[in-house]
Design a protein that fits this description.
The protein is α/β, with parallel strands linked by helices and 180 residues long. The protein has 6 helices and 7 strands, in the order βααβββαβααββα. Bound molecules: iron/sulfur cluster (SF4).
Length: 180
Amino acid sequence: MEKPKVATVWLEGCSGCHMSFLDLDEGLLDVLSAVELTHTPVTDFKDYDFPEAVLGIIEGAVGNEEQVEIIHKLRRKCQLLMAWGDCAVFGGINSMRNHIDKEVLLRRGYVETESTVDGRVPDDPEVPELLPRVLAANEVVNVEIFVPGCPPSPEAIAYALTEILKGRTPTLPADVMHFD
Ligand code: SF4
């Protein structure tokens, strides 16, 4: 029987949520026997041509134009989307920049740092344009499931996945909501 497909993306985040997923250790074998991971940083896919999937998992906030495009593509191909970790759930640490004007921020980062000589703000069209402010995943697309934490514990991830595969919307119990 064909396994349900799951895709994961790494947007504006530190990869810690995916690392927590890998921290399932031998529990990963149970996950991989139950689902097929399609596009995910774990399997090192470089394009965003997602196949149809039951579940799309989002690590990271949405901070630039390319990430807006990726999350829309994922939404179109997935029956359910899960925001995974504080960055995806509410913007997380990335949203610290939201009270600073984008141009001021770029100038401070690329031109005015004490260690920079002759700096300039990148203007290569290949570099995705920053959004004026960082957005949580559900400010851009509809998201059905939220698993907060920085990162969510491996147990929270396993619990959420198991519930989804059973056709239930996960309600995370308190004992999986802290990182031991
Ligand atoms: S929620 Fe925490 S661990 Fe996950 S990407 Fe954001 S900063 Fe990293």
